[in-house]
Design brief:
Length: about 60
């Protein structure tokens, strides 16, 4: 049950981060050529954060 809740939370969190990244790109008028690199960097860093959270939760249980 904890795994299902954690996965759902992670998907929601990743979606929200991507929405905020989109808003940042729009407000700062970042060129279209640079946006994929920004999204890639943000998504990789958030994925690392989520994976470390998974490890911490499941090793503590």
């Amino acid at each position: 049950m904890v795994l299902v809740i954690t996965v759902l939370f992670s998907l929601f969190y990743l979606y929200q981060i991507n929405r905020m990244t989109y808003t940042l790109c729009e407000s700062r008028e970042i060129p279209e050529e640079k946006q994929p690199k920004i999204y890639g960097t943000v998504n990789i860093l958030v994925t690392i954060l989520i994976l470390s959270f998974f490890v911490e939760v499941f090793l503590a249980a």
